[in-house]
Amino acid sequence: MLLAQLVVFFILAWVTKQFIWPPIVKALDERAQKVADGLAAAERGKHDLELATRRSVEALREGKEKSAELLTQTEKRAAQMIEEAKAQAKIEADRVIAGARAEIEQESLRARENLRDQVAALAVAGAEKILRREIDVKVHAELLAAIKQDL
Q1: Of the candidates 131, 128, 110, which has an alpha carbon nearest to the alpha carbon of residue 120?
Q2: If you write DSSP's letter for every residue of 22-73 in order, what string do you get?
Q3: Is pLDDT of 135 > 70?
Q4: By 3-state DSSP, what share of the chain in percent is helix, strand and coil, each rounded to 5?
Q5: Domain boundaries, the chain
Q6: pLDDT tens digits, residue range 69-103?
Q7: H or E element in which residue 16 lies
Q8: With left for phi above 0 and alpha for psi between -120 and 50, is residue 135 left, alpha or beta?
């Protein structure tokens, strides 16, 4: 009986070694390979995540720098536009002032001419009134006589 058990044991060991053990070893090797591939993929994923994190941080930094640069350029352009507007306003104000001064000068000349005309008219009217009152033949004759003697 021991011999029969020994034969059955060896047959079972041989059948196990020939037919059962290779698929189990193959399955274990495949499983080990999958685990190794998974670990390698995890390492690659970790590395890719680090790279992506670095890239995103760099992109964020570049975006902030660009936005700051754009903001600075916008502020400079706004200041430049304000200065240009001030210069245009100054030129326009100077032009308006020059026009107003010229108009004031013209009005002043017109007022002087008008005043001269009025003064001349008043002088003529006053002289006319004086001449009408003072026509005295005796006084005129004496003046004419004095002029004759001077000549």
Answers
A1: 128
A2: HHHHHHHHHHHHHHHHHHHHHHHHHHHHHHHHHHHHHHHHHHHHHHHHHHHH
A3: no
A4: 95, 0, 5
A5: 35-150
A6: 999 999 999 999 999 999 999 999 999 999 999 99
A7: none
A8: beta
